[in-house]
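Recall the central idea of this unit: under ordinary conditions, the amino acid sequence of a chain determines the structure it adopts. In this exercise we apply that idea directly, starting from the sequence alone.
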Amino acid sequence: MKFLMSYRASIQSEIRELTHKRILDAVWHLSLDVWLDEITLSQIADRANVSVQTLFRHFDSRDVLIEKSLENFIQTIRDLRSDTLDVSVQSIVDTLLNSYEQNGNWFFRLQSQENRFPGLAKWNRAWQEIQLEWVQRNFSVYLQALSPINQQELEQILVGMTDVHFWKVYRHDLGKSLEETRQIWIRVLRAVLLSYR
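Accordingly, the structure predicted from this sequence is:
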């Protein structure tokens, strides 16, 4: 009898966890088309295939739910934002392009909503931290030989040069192909890195 009760509790816990994930994923999918401050509990419940009451069993409020969804996405990006296999500029650019081709529109859409949804300020700061850490790891060969002042300056430049805005300008605003964007990005990064030798 104890085994059966333990088994049921385990199944219920697993179902609760899957429902929780479905709800967070629903917010992410909705945020691709709807401004965060306009997403309703009914939309989330419909998308997750749960009741509004179920949402409140998992989260205290709509804003908490959206913030938890953003935190979940930040962690996913942190996990997926791989380091380059080698230190070549080409490899770094390929990693960036892969990441932004998959999630760049969503990053940019979120960044543009900070005035509409105050919880995004925290997300944007977390994104900047992720970007800086990524730059420090992937450009370490280029950074380590510099003085601390030059190192910090170059890190800041590289954070700006590897941000989603660079990708958006070339891929969307200027209509460049993936390969054109890749070649431009490689040339620009090489020029910046050479200027710090």
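The mean pLDDT is 88.
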